[in-house]
Design brief:
Layout (H helix, E strand, L loop, with lengths): L5 H4 L2 H30 L4 H22 L3
Helix pairs in contact: 2-3
């Protein structure tokens, strides 16, 4: 596998499924917590933005783990 370029080593079906699940999760967290976040934190998108930040952190860490050779 190491001789193949990165574009051929990546499982694009898995990446698309991961992206779809993450997007659905972000929508669910954002829509379910809007009224509570507005009442408590005075920011309707507090939990949605927090979830997004943690998703980005996870993406950065996952990219790092994938790039480390076995």
């Amino acid at each position: 596998f190491s001789g193949l370029p990165l574009i051929q080593r990546v499982d694009w079906t898995l990446i698309c499924a991961w992206f779809a699940l993450m997007s659905i999760g972000l929508i669910m967290v954002s829509s379910a917590s809007v009224s509570f976040a507005e009442a408590v934190y005075r920011d309707a998108w507090f939990f949605g933005m927090r979830h997004f930040v943690f998703m980005l952190l996870g993406l950065v860490l996952a990219t790092f783990v994938v790039c480390v050779p076995m």
